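Researcher: Here's the sequence for the chain we discussed earlier.
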Amino acid sequence: MGNGMWKQEARDLVEEPSQSNEKLEDQRPQESSSSIPRHVWANRREEKFDYNKYYIKQRADIAKYGGPHPNIILFGRVGLHCYNLQNGTNLQFLTVHNFDSWITSILSHFISLEAMDPVDNSICEFETHVRYAVENKHCLSTITTGGRIKPKIPEEEDTYFGWNKDLVDDFFKGGMPEWMPEDALTGRDKLQYYEMKDSELEEEKEWLHLYAELALFSKLHAHALESAKPFEMKKIVVRTKANVESKKKVKAENAIFYTSFRTRCGRDCNCIIRRTTDGKRDHFSLEVKCFL
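Model: Thanks. This is the structure I predict for it:
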C-alpha cells in the first residue's frame, strides 16, 4: 500500500463529499416534506450531544425513508465479509441500523447493522469500523479495523488498534500489481496461482460479487452500481505467496484475485483485488484496481 494513499486528501475521493462534515451533508438530499432529513446522513458532534437519542432517531428515519446511502451499505457488507472470513462464519447482511461517518485525511465509518446466521436463522446486531481512501482514479483501498457481534449486555468500551502496514507480508506490499502474466498457470510460479472452478464461483458468489462491486465503486458512484448488477463472474485466478492446497488459496487472508466479470448491461470488466492483514484480529485491507 503506497504511503501516499493515507495522505490523500478527502477532496480527491472519487465522487465522494469533500473535506468538511458540512459539505458531506450538502451532498445528501435537502430537508423537505418528501426528502430524507439531513440528520439521517451525518452525525452531529456538538458538545453535550445526546448520542442515544440521536441513534434512536436515526434508526427510525433509516427505516422510514428506505435505508442509508449506498456507500454505507457497501462498506457495512465489507466489514461483515472480513469478519466472516476470519471467524469462519457466514453471517448474511440484512439492513443498516445506525452509522457514524467523518472525514479526516480519509473517510471513516462506524456502522451498526443487522445480520442473520443461516445456520439457525438467528438475528444479531453487528458493529464494524471501515475506512477508505483513493490513491488515484484506478486504485481504491478499504481497511477494516473492527468487527464484532454486539453483546446483549453492554461491555466496557472496546479498544481499537490502528492498521499497521509494516506488519503486512512484504510479498503483498507496495503498489498494486499489474495484470497476471499470460503463463501464470503454467510458468515458473504456477504453484502460487489457482483458477477457481465454476462450482466455487457459485459457492462463494456473495463475497466475490462484493469484490466486483467494490472494484466498480472505484470508477462509479455507488448509486450507479445497482444498474450494473447482477454480475456474471467469468474467470477468477487467485495468487498466494505460499503453496497451499488449492481451495485454501481462496480463503487465504493474504491473496490477490485477478477477476474478470460482466455487468448486467453486457460490459466486460477486469479488476485486481489484493486482500491482506496485519495479523491483528478484525484487521483486513481490500485494495482494488479496476480496468474498464
